[in-house]
Amino acid sequence: MDQLISTIILSPTCRIKRLLSVISPITLAQPYLFIIFASPSDNAPTLKQIVSSYLILDRSTRKKLKSLYVFLNGIVSWKMANKIRWINTLLELTNHVQINQISIPPKVYKFNLRLEPTIKVPSSRRIQTTVFETDLDILIGTNGHQGLLVVLLDSTSCMRQTGLNSEGIFNRPPSSTTLRIFREAYDRGHPVNPTTVSLYKTCLI
After folding, report:
1. Apex CA 163: angle with CA 42 and CA 156, to 5°?
2. What is the pLDDT of residues 77-102, one digit of tens each?
3. Distance CA 141, CA 54 (A)
4. pLDDT, greater one: 73 or 37
């Protein structure tokens, strides 16, 4: 998991066995780490659910867990206390993992804004060129040989999936906070999942 951090977003109705079937190819292959965005969440797991889920894992899988990062105070596991590292902000998280490989939910970004105004990725992990307010020739090349921007690919993909039959999708401006969150995420090189917000917000990013 040092080479690639996998992000898995599951619906509240998804059961623990489904989760284990998804992550088992990762956990069986090599040592891994978990990052839990413990708060804010409308469907946060209880301490009992987390401990029960952990006990379902076989011994070899449990031993391969290198670290458990917990973003914001929310859970405690006395059996894994030596592996838990409490993370208070996303900026602090950047010092431990390749944060620009993680798709972070907008709710986490919004809560993080209460704690710190910006997220500064370490220079060694920062992308060379920002997306916004940068000349297109620099971003895609003089003749466009470097391909379309990720922000355009993400937005058009979302519109093709859910917006072809919707009217007025460009007539509702997103909130300044949402726009700022997505803009800064793309500038840092973060993967962004536009489907986590409404179609109207996606179209105007």
Report:
1. 95
2. 456 556 667 788 888 888 887 777 77
3. 49
4. 37
pTM of the predicted model, to two decimals? 0.41
Domains of the chain (ranges plus CATH)? Answer: 1-102 (3.40.525.10), 127-205 (no CATH)
Distance of CA 175 to the CA centre of its chain: 20
Pairing of strands 84-87, 32-37: unpaired
CA dihedral angle for residue 99, residue 136, residue 195, residue 26, rounded to 10 degrees: -40
**3-state secondary structure string, 122-163?**
CHHHCCCCCCCCCCHHHHHCCCCCCCCCHHHHHHHHHHHHHC
Alpha-carbon Rg of the chain, whole angstroms? 19
Q: What is the pLDDT of residue 72?
A: 52
d(CA 197, CA 160): 15
Taken in order 133, 136, 140, 142, the sign of the CA dihedral is negative
Q: Which of 3-7, 85-89, 144-148, 187-191 has the lowest mean pLDDT?
A: 3-7
Quick one: angle between helices 16-29 and 47-56, nearest 10? 50
Q: 142 with 70: CB under 8 angstroms?
A: no
Structure tokens at 122: 């370490």
Could you tell me which residues come within 8 angstroms of residue 114 by beta carbon, excluding any fewer than 6 positions away?
none
- pLDDT tens for each residue of 134-146: 666 656 655 656 6
Q: For 117, which DSSP code?
A: S
